[in-house]
Each structure stands twice: as C-alpha cells, then as structure tokens.
Amino acid sequence: MPDTSSTTYARVGAVLHGIGMISEERMRGVLEEAAPYAHEELDHYEAACALEEFGVAVSVHADDIDSVHHDYASLLDDALRVAGNKVAVTDVRLVEGEGPLESGRFDTLEFRRNGRLVSVPAEHFADDYYDQGAACDAIAETAADDDPRAWHWVEFEHRPHAGYDSIMVLATQEQLKALHEHLGFTFPDSDGWQAPADPPAVRRAWGDVQRNAPGAPGPR
C-alpha cells in the first residue's frame, strides 16, 4: 500500500534523493527556493508537478501555448536537458494535414533524432494547444538508447472535470516502484503496472511513432 500521507516539497525532494534521482545539492537548492511553502501539504497533482521542479520530469501544458509550430521544439529542449542532452534533436517541424482545425486536423510532428527522421502523428483542434499524446510520444525520444532510464507518463489522482498538464518523468523501473511506494504515483505505460480503469484520453500507443533511415525525406 503506497504511503502518500503528508506529501510536501520537502518529502518529494527527500524521496528523489533517497532513490538516486537527484543529488543532495539539487535537493537542497530546490528546497531553499521553495522554503516559504516547502512543508505545506500538496495534493497529488501538485506532487507530480514538483517532480519537474526537481529536474526529473517535464510537463506538457494543457492550457493554450504560443503555437504548435514552435512550442514542440522548446518542449523537446526541456526534455533533452532533463535527459542530459545525450541525444541530438534537430529540424523540429509540424507538417499540417488537410481539413479544418475545428474538426480535428491530422498533422505530423517531425524531427531528426541523431540524424534519423522521427514522425509522430498528432491531431490538433487549435493552433495553440498541444496534442498531449503526441507531445508525450516525442518526449520519449529524447532519452539515450543506452540510458537505463526511460520516460514514463505519471498517473495521479484526478478530480472530475478538472484540467491537468501531462507529467512525464525520466526514471528506471526500480525508481518507478519507489515513486509508487513513497508518493503513490502509477505509470500505465510501464511493464508491470496496471493501467487505471479510465485513464485520460491523452495516451496513445507509442508504436505509432515512426523512425526512418537517416537519409529518408524529412525536415529540411
């Protein structure tokens, strides 16, 4: 049974440090900045957002952004920093599909990962809102192939009809188990974890992502 009692910034930091996800220096630095509220109790979503503050996660904003033509690139930059910039992601662009946005336009998010073209299907209903599933799929490509960690979508407690950012955390399987045990998070996309009965609709099978040969046509 996971122990989620009295979850605070201080506790989140201590858990992350204890399981080797952050250094003591990083933990202390974040907690110093959060000193006025470091010991205030967090709800489950706030605890998930705290993972980003400690530098082990990235959030995909559910609210409006500047433009889907530009913001995916900055989102991938954020993910690359968390992952240690061990992968080269270049030539990020959105290829628009046909039809009006109001009906859901089927676009393609493209970029090169270490020179190889990656194509991620994305459905957009407006120019200033991410396709949450496509954004998470793209973030997953920023972890190095030899990194024991991988990106995982964080499931937290949801209130009915409330809007939430998607939170992606970079962790090993053992770290995921510890995050579940100490902070109550689950990870529907991870081996050995049971998906919630009614998961948010943002998730999609990562098998839709296509990696093509380095010389294949793509972003120029």
Task: List the keywords.
220 residues, alpha+beta, four-stranded antiparallel β-sheet, three-stranded antiparallel β-sheet, 7 strands
**First-last Cα distance:** 51 Å
Tell me the major beta sheet: 4 strands, antiparallel
The overall strand count is: 7
Structural class, from secondary structure content? Answer: alpha+beta
* Helix segment tally: 6
Helix proportion = 25-40%
User: What's the overall geometry?
Assistant: globular
Radius of gyration equals: 18 Å
Poorly predicted tracts of residues: 192-207
Which whole number gives the mean pLDDT?
88
Beta-strand share of residues: 15-25%
> What is the spatial order of strands in the main beta sheet?
2-3-4-7
Order of helices and strands: HHHEHEEEHEEHE
Explain the overall architecture.
The chain is α+β, with helices and mostly antiparallel strands. 28% of the residues lie in helices and 19% in strands. It is built from six helices and seven strands. Strand 3 and strand 4 form a beta hairpin. Helix 1 packs antiparallel against helix 2. The longest helix is centred in the middle third of the chain and has 12 residues. The N and C termini lie far apart (51 Å).
Summarize the topology.
Blueprint: H1 9-18, H2 24-33, H3 44-53, E1 57-60, H4 71-82, E2 89-95, E3 105-113, E4 116-124, H5 132-140, E5 150-153, E6 166-171, H6 173-183, E7 210-211
Antiparallel strand pairs: 1-6, 2-3, 3-4, 4-7, 5-6
Would you kindly provide a brief summary of this structure?
This protein has 220 residues and is α+β, with helices and mostly antiparallel strands.
